Amino acid sequence: MIAENLIAKMQTVKALLSGARSLVVLTGAGVSAESGVPTFRGTDGLWEEYRPEDLARPEAFSRDPELIWRFYNWRRELVGRCEPNPAHLALAALERQAPEMLLVTQNVDGLHQRAGNRNVLELHGSLWRLQCTVCTYEEENRTDLPPLPACPRCNNLLRPGVVWFGEQLPAGVLSTVLDTVAKADVMLVAGTSSVVQPAASLAHVAKRSGAVTIEVNLEPTHNTGFMDFALHGRAGEILPQLVEGI
Ligand code: APR
Question: Where are the alpha helices (DSSP H) in the chain?
Fold first, then answer.
């Protein structure tokens, strides 16, 4: 009985994705987990070993920039060895089928772009972006960095181009995302615990605007209860099944 229900649910969700007029997808660390990128809150997640307030806050960077750069260089080196997994490839195939699809990601690993998605908004920035702490200089950079990288323009300290706890999202990104989500007729949320704002509220905005909301996640989340459809399991297994043949 359960298997039949699941098959029926998958078929319905497939039809919703293929028939979407305006599709928005929100992803989190769970979509990159099968590439070997640690999640934040799952078992063996980053925050199980480190405290976010110790490493992902501007105050932590001001207090000990060398420690924070060691953490981010470790993540750049680790993520640099990771490849897109079937979940990423499925979302790239989905965009090819629905060219107006917007992929909003909380991930900073750049794996969606490497998988082929073009229309990607990085809510929390990117491990591969460097920003000057003083002037407006910024660059995409995938090289090995020194312990305290300096701005080539003004020689002040560079910081990772990611959004830390307590910081504002990149200017204009949130308004673009909210506008698009409010116009969506289908929203797919994959691989996020839905605890960090404002990302966690986007599905609420979509639903209030009349969109059908779908969750794909390894386990139930804070948002599962109000999603129209919740498919629990590995993104690398479910997303390819949802996208196959549409
Ligand atoms: N397939 C699907 N879901 C998975 C998988 C998988 N293979 N592996 C783990 N998950 C799920 C976990 O069950 C969890 O609910 O992915 C979710 C990951 O949640 P988090 O680790 O909290 O990551 P995320 O939701 O992306 O965090 C949001 O918090 O720390 C900040 O800036 C950081 O962008 C991050 C934000």
Answer: 2-19, 29-32, 46-49, 52-55, 58-63, 65-80, 86-97, 111-115, 173-183, 202-208, 235-243
